[in-house]
Amino acid sequence: MAEHIDFGKQGEEIAVKYLTDKGYEILERNWRNRHKEIDIIAKDGKDLVIVEVKTRKSNSYGEPDLAVNKQKQRLLIYAANAYIYRYNLDIDTRFDIISIYFREGKPIIDHIEDAFLPCW
């Protein structure tokens, strides 16, 4: 597997541990609908949480969450809508970004809750 993919998977593992430690219930990982993918789908209390994980070796070129541009947000919204429709859910949903970069070999985690709002 390519190094950047392995590194991304490592970031997702860190994010899952972080979320479960905070009491989230992980429902899905790498859920796909056609060419759209959601890194993590979780429940936080009564809320469905769609989580995009961005991992970088450092933040020298800016915070990793800046990579979640409008186009990526649209894809996440479409994928979330497909998930909600497929499982016939009637649940409050929010979109979070977990940004991870490494400093001196240790992960620095920035969890942005309600990072953006869908335009349903």
Architecture overview:
The protein is α+β, with helices and mostly antiparallel strands. The chain has helices at 3-21, 70-86; strands at residues 25-33, 36-44, 47-56, 93-103, 106-116. It has a 5-stranded mixed sheet with strand order 1-2-3-4-5. The longest helix is centred in the N-terminal third of the chain and has 19 residues, at 3-21. The radius of gyration is 14 Å and the shape is globular. It starts with a helix and ends with a strand.
Element-by-element helix/strand order: HEEEHEE
Question: Could you tell me the strand content as a percent range?
Answer: 35-45%
Count of helix runs: 2
Cα distance, first to last residue?
36 Å
Write out key terms for the chains shown.
5-stranded mixed β-sheet; 120 residues; 2 helices; 30% helix; 5 strands; 42% strand; alpha+beta
